[in-house]
Amino acid sequence: MHGDETTLGGDRGTPDRGARLLTRNVPQAEVARRLGVSRQSVSRWAQQLAAVNGAVGKLKAKCLGRPRRLDPAQCATLREALVKGALHAGFPTELWTVKRVRVLIKRQFGVAYSNTGCWQLLRGLRFSPQKPQKRALQRNEEAIATCKRKTWPALKKNAKRQGRTIVFIDESGLSEKCPVTRTWGLRGHTPVIQQSFTWKQLSAIAGLSWWRFYFRFVDGAVGSEPMIEFLDPLKQQIRHKLLIVCDGAAAHKSRRVREWLERQNGRIAITFLPPYAPELNPVEAIWAYLKKHAIANLCQTHLAQVSAFARRRLKSMQCRPKLIRAFWQQAELAL
Predict the structure, then answer these.
(1) Residue 49 has pLDDT above 90, yes or no
(2) pTM greater than 0.85
(3) Which helix (H) or strand (E) holds 242?
(4) Domains of the chain
């Protein structure tokens, strides 16, 4: 149903029948009983009759009952418009709200929907309210698609031919302020958690191969030196040649890192993902799992405690092959 509109029951002539009964001074309650409609509907008919001085004929051009709905063809057209996005429909941002959908329906089909009716219509079209992913405007979608379709398969093929182990690398930050998901509280009273908005931070760098991941904690930001300090023992643990895949952060492309790589005599090669495409890097799934599950609601007050706990959780995650496979499956790259 649409907002405050009521189910009329009976055939399409019910509003006209109700109007005729009202002109014969039949009480509204009796009209509602006879026609099987709500008192609110009858009251609305009475108001409309009063506006035209009881001339039933003048009401024939008006809809006394349920407002017109979209037909199946119009619903299909609406669904296509929603899938194309709000920007394509002429809105300033790519955000669909019930209000915007109502505006779109009115603009394209001349049909007015209430908030409730629009909500139910969207449900019927298999749409649901969801938390959107945030992506940078600077993304090059064509480059990302090319990476998925051509670059990545070629990298795997060349790495296999050269006997290289592919290792994805990424960094993240940890702080004394761990993610808070839920807390128990008195019903009707939103809990308040007092926190300091100045906190110490540390960084972590991780590398993920097909079967295992490696990590290292770093004080401060990850620069050229921490990057080299991570790669140097990594090549000792993995005896094969390495192909490092990472984003284009400054630390990954710095002069010191390039000079260090040149001294490895081809032992380590490096390639870069398209910018602003974290969904291509499976290491992002490691950080997401760590923060949303492993250390969520961690009740620690010192950075050293957070670091020690996170280290234990990461070591535990290293021993879970199914979890490592899940990290790969979450990346938008074909295995």
Answers:
(1) no
(2) no
(3) strand 241-246
(4) 1-67 (no CATH), 72-124 (no CATH), 141-330 (3.30.420.10)
d(CA 171, CA 284): 9
Element containing residue 243 per DSSP (H, E): strand 241-246
Amino acid (1-letter code) at residue 310: A
3-state helix, strand, coil in the chain (%, to 5): 45, 10, 40
Residue 9 has a pLDDT of 35
Contact indicator for 104, 78 with CB cutoff of 8 Å: yes
What CA–CA distance (Å, rounded) separates 333 from 281?
8
Report d(CA 287, CA 174) in Å as an integer: 10
Nearest to 132 by CA among 181, 81, 182, 86: 86
177 with 195: CB under 8 angstroms? Answer: yes
Q: What is the DSSP string of 144-187?
A: HHHIIIIIHHHHHHHHHHHTEEEEEEEEEEEESS---------T
How far the first Cα of the chain sits from its last, in Å, is 47
Three-class secondary structure of residue 116 per DSSP: helix
Classify 5 as helix, strand or coil: coil
pLDDT for 119 beyond 50: yes
Structure tokens at 142: 């064509």
The secondary structure element, H or E, covering residue 216 is: strand 213-219
